[in-house]
Amino acid sequence: MKKITTSTGFTFDLNEKLLDDMRLVRQIRTLEAVKDNDSSTLRIVNDVLEKFVGGAENYDKLLTHLENISEDGVAHSTAIISELTDILNSLGDNGKKS
């Protein structure tokens, strides 16, 4: 397990075996190719983040965290994407397998 802390202060333990899960790697590669925040992109972001943070319960904690730090109390899609970007950046090359 690797402890990850995003720039907003959300902390969780990442199961590093996920970095070798080819279905997850494929989802991440799909995100890299997409430029828009359309609904299919956001579905993939949600799926990847839920796996990274260790399941639905921790994903709900992330959403609550984002709501708490948001000025309007909403976990915005841009904030979710920023969290995933932080996580991938913290993993360096390990998070960018092809």
SSE arrangement:
Layout: E1 2-5, E2 11-14, H1 22-33, H2 39-53, H3 56-69, H4 77-91
Antiparallel strand pairs: 1-2
Helix pairs in contact: 1-2, 2-3, 2-4
Question: Secondary-structure element order, as H and E?
Answer: EEHHHH
Described by strand count, sense and barrel closure, the largest sheet is:
2 strands, antiparallel
DSSP helical segment count:
4
Return residue spans where pLDDT drops below 50 for at least 5 consecutive residues: none
Strand order across the largest sheet: 1-2
Please state the overall shape, judged from the principal axes of the Cα atoms. Answer: globular
**End-to-end Cα distance:** 22 Å
Beta fraction of the residues? 5-15%
Structure write-up:
A hairpin with a 5-residue loop joins strand 1 (2-5) and strand 2 (11-14). The chain is globular, with a radius of gyration of 13 Å. Helix 1 runs antiparallel to helix 2 (39-53), helix 2 (39-53) crosses helix 3 and helix 2 (39-53) crosses helix 4 (77-91). It is mainly alpha-helical. It has 4 helices and 2 strands; from the N terminus they run ββαααα. The two termini are 22 Å apart.
Short description:
Helix content is 57%, strand content 8%. With 98 residues, it is mainly alpha-helical.
Keywords:
98 residues, mainly alpha, two-stranded antiparallel ribbon, 4 helices, 8% strand, globular
